[in-house]
Design goal:
Elements (H helix, E strand, L loop, with lengths): L1 H4 L3 H12 L6 H13 L4 H15 L9 H13 L17 E6 L6 H14 L4 E6 L4 H14 L2 E4 L6 H15 L3 E6 L6 H16 L6 E7 L3 H14 L4 E5 L9 H9 L3 E5 L7 E3 L2 H9 L1
Parallel strand pairs: 1-4, 1-5, 2-3, 2-4, 5-6, 6-7
Antiparallel strand pairs: 7-8
Helix pairs in contact: 2-3, 3-4, 4-5, 5-12, 6-7, 8-9, 10-11
This protein binds guanosine-5'-diphosphate.
């Protein structure tokens, strides 16, 4: 499924394979390979490391010519998966709900991701509750309420313009009272100054943790925004302890390499990928499927 959805991925894969399969891998060829990788948003340093590895492995020494596709696949998997734990921490301990805090810049797909995540939880026969703590964007609460109806999960909401922390507190309180498995809290993503963001998200997290630990902090990042989105995401990772990335709009991006860049620069694994606007368009990140899509 990932294979079909990754826009333009074939271009990168075909381009790389075409170059690597040349009879003679001269300097111009290696430069062209480097350009392709950098153009896919993998980042300069990882690109250079990858090219170094490919150079070594593609060297023909006496025996058979190495299989370009096999070598490329192995090296891409190693690059995308430096042994990170991609499990989602959605469970609490001893009958207490797990709490997933979803953060990120407005427009990245935060609310949509919360809705789709609720769908996944329901599909896994878990009980869930959503908290609409993005009280600054008028439409956000409505949007989440619509998602709640769509996937059959209750949404705890507060007054428009109300205190996000009090909505978050209330959602978790009700989640504990009802004994649900997971509470997912949507938050506001105004890109105000760092201090303001820190105060706001810090308070949301603190009031939740007066009741029970936050088990997962998911940072939502829009794959189509490239390096610029990454800089904004970094600000969030500096104000809360992010434990996983939800990379959205991968269906609309030809730059899947952002996965590599984001994991390296933020030091956290991509755990979920958004592959469309529908309720079933969120999936656990599958490294093998992703690399196959790049090479398809
Ligand atoms: P928020 O402001 O971060 O809460 O963003 P929204 O959840 O409102 O999403 C912004 C827009 O991105 C909406 O039109 C969503 O349908 C769209 N969107 C979210 N995730 C994806 C995705 O994975 N793929 C695509 N194509 N669109 C997405």
């Amino acid at each position: 499924r990932l294979r079909q959805r990754l826009a333009g991925s074939g271009t990168l894969g075909r381009g790389l394979l075409g170059l690597l399969s040349r009879d003679r891998l001269d300097e111009d060829t290696w430069e062209a390979i480097e350009d392709l990788l950098i153009g896919a948003d993998i980042g300069v340093e990882p690109t250079q490391q990858l090219v170094e590895k490919l150079r070594t492995r593609m060297r023909v020494e006496g025996g058979d010519t190495p299989d370009a596709r096999e070598v490329l696949r192995e090296e891409l998997v190693a690059l995308v998966d430096p042994g990170l734990d991609r499990s989602l921490h959605i469970s609490g301990t001893e009958g207490v709900p797990g709490v997933v805090l979803v953060v990120g810049v407005n427009g990245t797909g935060k609310t949509t991701t919360v809705g789709k995540l609720a769908r996944i939880l329901v599909a896994e026969n878990r009980t869930a509750l959503l908290g609409a703590a993005d009280t600054f964007r008028a439409a956000a609460t409505e949007q989440l309420a619509t998602w709640g109806e769509r996937v059959g999960v209750e949404v705890v909401r507060g007054p428009e313009g109300g205190d996000p922390a009090s909505v978050a507190f209330e959602a978790v309180k009700q989640g504990i009272d009802q004994g649900v498995d997971t509470v997912v809290v949507d938050t506001a993503g105004r890109l105000q100054n760092k201090q303001g963001l820190m105060d706001e998200l810090g308070k949301v997290k603190r009031v939740i943790e007066k009741q029970t630990p936050v088990t997962e902090v998911l940072l939502v990042l829009d794959a189509t925004t490239g390096q610029n989105g990454l800089i904004q995401a970094k600000v969030f990772s500096e104000v809360v302890d992010v434990t996983g990335i939800a990379l959205t709009k991968l269906d609309g991006s030809a730059k899947g390499g952002i996965v590599v860049a984001v994991q390296r620069q933020l030091g956290v694994p991509v755990k979920l990928v958004g592959l469309g606007e529908g309720p079933d368009d969120l999936a656990p990140f599958d490294v093998g499927a992703f690399v196959d899509a790049l090479l398809s």
